[in-house]
Amino acid sequence: MKLSLRFKVSALVLLLVTPLFLFLYYTNIYSTNIVREKVAKSASDTLTLHLGSLDELLEQTSIYLLRSANENMLLELYSESPPDSVSYYLSIRKLMDQWYSDVSYYTIIRSVFVYHLDRKELFLSSQQEYYQEKDAISSGLSSQLKGSQLPASLNWEIVNIGGEPVLYKVLPDKSGRLLIGVLVSIDSLAQPLIQLESAEGDDGRVGIISKDGKLLWGEFSNEDLHRIRSHLNDPSHGTGTSIRLSNGSNYLFVDKPSLFSNLNVFILLDEKSILEELPIFQRIIKSIPIAIVIIMVILLILLSRLVFKPIQQLASGMRILGKGHLEHRLKDGKSKEFQLITQQFNRMAEQIGDLKIDVYEEQMKVQQAELKHLQAQINPHFFMNSLNIVYHLVELKKYSLIKKVISHLVSYFRFIMSTNDTWITLGSELNHIRNYMEIQMVMYPDRLDFHEQIPKELENVLVPPLLIQPFVENAIKHGFINNSHPFRVSVSVKEETLNDEESCVSIQIKDSGPGFSGQQLEILNLGLYEKDPTDRQIGIWNVRRRLIMFYDQRAELSFHNDSQGGGVVNIKLPIRGG
After folding, report:
1. Domain residue spans of the chain
2. What is the pLDDT of residues 142-180, one digit of tens each?
3. Which CATH code for domain 72-189?
4. Rg for the chain (alpha carbons), in Å?
5. pLDDT tens, position by position, 468-480
6. CA distance 3 to 13
7. Is 568's pLDDT higher than 90?
8. From 3.90.220.20, 3.40.980.10, 3.30.565.10, 3.10.20.30, which CATH number describes the 360-574 domain?
9. Cross-strand partners of 495
């Protein structure tokens, strides 16, 4: 397959520009990745610093809880004092005062409480309202306030207290009768993160999520939260990977897990804002590929107008000339070179037209001579067969039949010999066949049956003369068998529509004889007899030759056997009205 000049020039331009475009594209991507990596590392270091402060607070609170459980004498006094004793109330009162001071000092502590396992008593000191907090702890830590349900891990656990997620830790005292616990507010832990989010402005979003996927702090939609969970659960995700949120923006995702709890702190940085901080030369590099594309488009448009379009018009003109439209002429080109080419093309088209007219006139003379030869060939053939019939009737001395046959012959040949027309109507052709069949039925009385069917509107369709008669004659000559059943010949005509929606007349000649053999069908349908026609196929060869001359390749001639017996000949011709 040969390629067009437009394609070759476009491919050459692309071949020259593509390496530069790919290099600039790679440079742009590389620079972008470097910036993203630097920003991700900076965000990761900042997040590590803030998370280190949170872990340090949790570690200090853990040390405070461990010291309280093991060294606080008031807890031991409370554990050993019987209810309603002075030491019992005194120890509780002093514990409450001491813990109130501790809660004020450790700002992340929400509540400190003690639970007596034997007495099922709960006392606490909290930044919240006392009785409300006591009820919340009793309901929220009902399963945890049992000796058998102490956390197996030394890390801080997450629990929901009063509808708010908090961190909690519980330790037994030396006696084993008390559980001392601390609740840490996640909102208090997140205070440094609020400052971090404020420092990032609208470009950064910070959140805290548990390792089981629950959002503990931060404002995110359900859809965004689902994407964050999927990103965290992806084993291939790392620091500085990209995630797309529901607003359509891509964010740089940086997360760090806590060392002392099941918390995971993450920060989302808007990539668009990050890349806007690139130096001016980076933006220039990014715009160069666009400029190259624009230059290529302009170049191709100019080439199309100055070169491709004139060449395409020239090629189109050649195709039109090739189809036979010799009157087609090209308009003068805008450039000197194409103007010269156009003038030479128009002069060549004019010369080809003159030459073709001369050749066509010679072909018409040859074709007319050949048609006269074919016409002269088919008439004597039928005439000799007719005289043979009269000869047999004379031998039989059937003078009345001889008169009838000669009458039909006179009518038939009067029409044939009185006209030199190239075309006759279908009605006239069928009238000839009717005379021919009358002659045959005189010779074979009660043994032949002829039937014809033609719509009234098709009787004036023009066809070459003696187009159907040779096949009717061949049907009687080769298909008629002298037996008890009459031999039937039928001719039917109807109008059909071809695939290209062109109307045609379909002529079918059918007999009740033995039909064609397989070898005969192959010879007839493939036209093998045309290479060396014999006297047996002279009529068929004559018809096919005239169909080619009159209709070119638009006429069809086919042979097959009927499913109920007998041979069938189909002729399809474009309709020519008269």
Report:
1. 72-189, 360-574
2. 777 765 455 555 688 888 888 888 888 888 888 888 888
3. 3.30.450
4. 54
5. 888 888 888 888 8
6. 15
7. yes
8. 3.30.565.10
9. 505
